[in-house]
Design brief:
The complex is a heterodimer of chains A (452) and B (481). With 452 residues, chain A is an alpha/beta fold. Chain A has helices at residues 20-28, 42-56, 69-74, 77-91, 102-107, 111-121, 142-157, 180-192, 225-229, 245-255, 268-282, 288-308, 319-331, 361-370, 383-389, 413-435, 442-451; strands at residues 3-6, 12-13, 34-39, 63-64, 95-100, 130-133, 166-174, 196-199, 234-240, 259-262, 312-316, 335-341, 355-358, 375-378, 393-395. Chain A has 17 helices and 15 strands. The chains are: A alpha/beta (452), B alpha/beta (481).
């Protein structure tokens, strides 16, 4: 049982947190042929763009209403109008997703009202999908922007009516910690249970890194607007990560589709629950393939526990990712000595640690150093701290801009967990070989220090 | 805000700017930044530009006053290198929340400055204004002044909120902050007749260190580099330099020209990209120093060094000629680089099928014509789609550009090299240019191209775009002019 504390200081040093609008924009990037649009100064978009380009190593569709100082003071209707018209003229997306930012929220732009007025002034856009989500920079974090955007997409596109259910059809609402690689893996699992899953959002077709047939200025793939409209015909909705519970509830409220929330999909027990549930709703036994994978995971845990057992873990991540991965390591014998996150969440207090801080990487560094951490997990911005403290450093979350393959790091399922354990154990072995070779004086020095 | 507006007008009025000479007063007031098009723009904002210009100062704590977006989404993203302090790579922000918005963020900013001073003891703290606190009226000038007085440490306000304009304006506003608060506030221990400033050079990938040994050999001291691998104190006493070189032509022209006016430091605009340009720049530095009292023999030494280095560089490039002869390069960059690397590429036998002039001045365009001939392909604004088409149809063998367009080339399975700010290779001076040619050769002759362009066995012959690209006739006319 953890106590969640918000750090009280005036200067955030080495932020862990990123802003809501970019989280919202990423959710829109999981929709096919879509253009996300940030309503703010051009820099809001440009920084988000660079962030995603560095992480995904892909061209990123992201536009701006390019609010100038004057436009900001006068209000942004003209900018929204021009932006929609320009984007439509240039790229003909199936949907435009608008996220607000700090500047436009302070001015108090009524974007919903702007969109209504825009549709009146341009009747050809009466039924054109434009989804707006309010995501001020000065509250919440990346994860909040993502879940708000998904909830708004459901409210805007899924009709409020109960449809005939297709027993094979499943909706999946993945949190922002679920990678394109995770979605590919989950797709296959559902297929093997004879089910067909649609993911909202689906980054597996848009930001998985592939060679498109032609140049596309909008998202390369993802879930289609037509598929979202049909989500009410699914038999079940599966939400992954506590952040998705609002979206799952919204979908249930509109269409009556029941949901089941899985807070974790990494680890033995969470996957036992997950596979048992799939077996139950599909009416099929767990395929032999996954029984074998379960057995392999157990073997990996046995082989890996030598390296994770007794490890002192310092971890910084958004709540759902933090809860999932830190819990796995705890189950593998690691002690969580420092945990820092970005925003409030009901899962935090379940973490096996005394205290979870809502803070920054400076807070994590101070605690990691004071409590003798010997394993660091966070996003790529942990690299300076890892170097200073000479910690073995395993990158999780977003951004990972200094390594390749971030979109294909898989942590879900028995297989994903197995591979994660291997990667982590290998890192720890290599670190030991580099930094902790015993010398004739290793124990002598320790004994002498003790004597002093 | 009025003082900021005045500052922006002042920057737009830059007398040393060639473009400005040809403008009416009314046009000048409008400034050089084009009106942005909503839904059609994606460049950096003025805050971004200010941070780019100043962050390479290594012993400074760079504090961003604003909500998390401005710093949290973008920190530790610069390729500058430091020979000393790593403080510049750490990230400081007031991370404003709703309470700060309601009650104003000045108090938090003041406390943040205090915390940084106590914890990290930086040579100075640069405070960057952003849109949100600018809107709610936080007066960072006043806070910085009070904090500097109270804590006895330079606290420099950088007034360049994102929504006042584009990146380039931010570069200049950053320069104004240096002129107003930093330059001329300290004295060097000693001066020499060989002291220069380098302005607008950011030491990306450590490339300044490709040129520094040459300056060292000539006995020329970089008194201050603004701002690559720079230290606060060096900038503070940079007004004692004898001459200055302005590197990135548009970024900090105001710093060079105002230092000339205030401190009588003559400057020239030069580049270390390209062999001829490196030589010209070295000569120009020497000429200016001699005009300020350095001995005449400096030019003799410079000429000897230039001759030696050019010969070495051309000999090194010569080795690549056989491999590179006739290969076609599409150069998508801007400003100085639109012509300064061309000569070296031509020397290696490469053919330049197009160079972008979107960010180039009239002078830049004249230089392109001189080097590439009257019928030089100058591309003003090529859309990604056109670039993709050109590469896909194989009208160029390799594209050199910035990170923004990298995926256009890579997705077309075409060789690509990063020659802009995010690059991982250093391409400055003689050694840098040889390395650029080497990298082009490595990239063109990497065996992957043959494989990645092969269609899958199950694709019907001739239908895949890869097949079409390979079959495309060599010399189609350029579409994008």
């Amino acid at each position: 049982m953890a106590i969640v504390t918000t750090i009280r200081k005036s200067c955030t040093v080495n932020p862990l947190k990123m802003s809501q609008p970019v989280g919202g924009a990423l959710a829109f990037m999981g929709l096919r042929n879509t253009m996300p649009l940030l309503h703010g100064s051009q820099g809001c978009t440009s920084f988000g763009l660079v962030l995603f380009v560095r992480h995904f190593k892909e061209a990123i569709p992201l536009q701006t209403t390019a609010m100038s100082e004057v436009a900001t003071v006068l209000g942004g209707y003209e900018n929204i109008e021009q932006a929609i018209l320009n984007i439509y003229k240039r790229t003909k997306p199936d949907l435009i997703g608008i996220c607000s930012t700090g500047v436009t929220e302070i001015k108090g732009d009524d974007v919903e009202g702007f969109i209504k007025l825009f549709r009146m002034n341009h009747p050809e856009f009466t039924d054109y999908p434009i989804v707006y989500v309010s995501t001020p920079d000065f509250s919440g974090a990346f994860q909040d922007g993502w879940d708000k955007a998904v909830t708004r997409i459901i409210e805007a596109l899924v009709p409020a009516q109960v449809l005939a259910r297709d027993p094979r059809h499943v909706n999946v609402l993945p949190g922002c910690h679920i990678t394109a690689g995770d979605i590919d893996e989950l797709h296959e699992i559902f297929e093997n249970f004879g089910m067909e899953a649609v993911f909202l959002p689906d980054l597996s077709g848009s930001l998985d890194g592939h060679i498109p047939d032609d140049f596309t200025p909008t998202t390369l793939g993802g879930i289609g607007v037509d598929e979202i409209v049909q989500m009410g015909s699914a038999n079940w909705t599966i939400a992954i990560g506590a952040q998705m519970s609002a979206a799952a509830q919204a979908l249930q409220a509109r269409s009556g589709v029941p949901f089941r929330l899985f807070e974790r999909l990494c680890g033995l027990r969470p996957n036992d629950e997950f596979f048992a549930f799939l077996s139950e709703i599909s009416g099929r036994p767990v395929p032999a393939k996954y029984r074998r994978q379960r057995s392999q995971l157990i073997d990996a845990m046995l082989d890996g526990h030598f390296y994770t057992g007794g490890r002192k873990l310092a971890i910084g991540a958004e709540p759902d990712l933090l809860y999932d991965i830190a819990s796995l390591l705890h189950e593998m014998g690691a002690e969580i000595v420092a945990a820092v996150t970005t925003t409030a969440s009901p899962v935090l207090e379940k973490l096996a640690v005394d205290e979870v801080l809502i803070g920054d990487l400076e807070d994590l560094e101070i605690r990691a150093s004071a409590r003798g951490a010997d394993l660091l997990l966070t996003h790529a911005h942990g690299r300076q701290m890892a170097a200073r403290l000479e910690l073995p450093f395993f990158r999780i979350g977003l951004p990972i801009f200094d390594r390749l393959g971030a979109a294909h790091i898989v942590t879900v399922g028995y297989k994903g967990t197995r591979n994660l354990i291997f990667s982590m154990a290998n890192l720890l072995m290599e670190h030991n070989e580099t930094y902790h070779k015993p010398t004739p004086d290793s124990w002598r020095r320790a004994a002498q220090e003790e004597a002093v | 805000m009025t003082s900021l507006n005045a500052k922006i007008q002042e920057v737009f009025n830059e007398p040393a700017c060639g473009v400005n000479h040809n403008k009416t007063e009314k046009e000048r007031k409008k400034g050089c930044t084009k009106q942005l098009q909503p839904g059609g723009a994606a460049g950096g904002c003025a805050f971004d530009g200010a941070k780019i210009a100043l962050q390479p100062f290594t012993d400074v704590a760079h504090l961003v006053h604003g909500p998390i977006a401005c710093e949290g989404n973008s920190w530790d993203n610069r390729g500058s290198k430091s020979s000393g302090s790593a403080l510049w790579r750490m990230s400081f922000t007031t991370d404003m929340n709703e309470t700060d918005i309601v009650f104003g963020g000045e108090k938090r900013l003041y406390k943040a400055i205090k915390e940084i001073g106590e914890k990290y003891d930086p040579a100075a703290i640069f405070v960057y204004q952003t849109c949100v606190p600018a809107m709610i009226g936080d007066d960072i000038n006043a806070v910085c002044k009070a904090a500097a007085k109270k804590f006895g440490r330079p606290v420099i306000p950088v007034n360049s909120p994102g929504f006042v304009g584009q990146k380039n304006l931010g570069n200049k506003l950053a320069g104004e902050a240096l002129l107003d608060h930093v330059i001329g506030t300290a004295e060097p221990e000693y001066t020499t007749p060989y002291d220069i400033n380098i302005i607008g050079e950011y030491n990306l990938s450590g490339e300044l260190w490709q040129v520094k040994p040459l300056l060292d050999e000539l006995g020329i001291r970089i008194l201050s580099c603004i701002s690559g691998d720079g230290k606060y104190l060096e900038a503070a006493y940079s007004h004692r330099a004898k001459a200055a070189m302005m590197v990135c032509s548009r970024a900090m022209i105001n710093v060079a020209s105002k230092m000339e006016k205030r401190y009588n430091i003559p400057f020239f605009e030069g580049s270390f990209y390209g062999i001829g340009d490196t030589s010209d720049s070295l000569r120009e530095i020497s000429r200016l120093l001699i005009s300020r009292g350095a001995p005449d023999k400096l030019m003799f030494h410079t000429e000897a060094l230039v001759a030696r280095e050019e010969q070495k560089a051309f000999a090194a490039i010569e080795q690549f000629k056989v491999q590179l002869a006739g290969k076609r390069v599409l150069l998508i960059t801007g400003g100085v680089k639109s012509w300064s690397v061309v000569a070296a590429l031509q020397e290696a036998g490469l053919e330049i099928v197009g160079t972008s002039v979107k960010k180039s001045t009239k002078e830049d365009k004249e230089r392109i014509k001189q080097i590439m001939g009257e019928d030089a392909h100058m591309i003003d604004d090529m859309t990604p789609r056109e670039m993709y088409k050109m590469l896909r149809e194989a009208r160029a063998d390799i594209m050199l550009s910035g990170g923004r367009s990298q995926f256009v080339a890579l997705k077309a399975a075409m060789p690509w090299l990063d020659i802009n700010q995010e690059r991982h290779h250093a391409y400055m001076g003689y050694v840098g240019m040889v390395d650029l040619v080497r990298q082009i050769e490595k990239s063109l002759y990497n065996p992957i191209w043959e494989q990645v362009r092969q269609p899958a066995p199950w694709d019907v012959n001739g239908e895949s775009w890869q097949k079409k690209a390979q079959a495309a006739p060599a010399a189609l006319p350029l579409a994008a002019e």
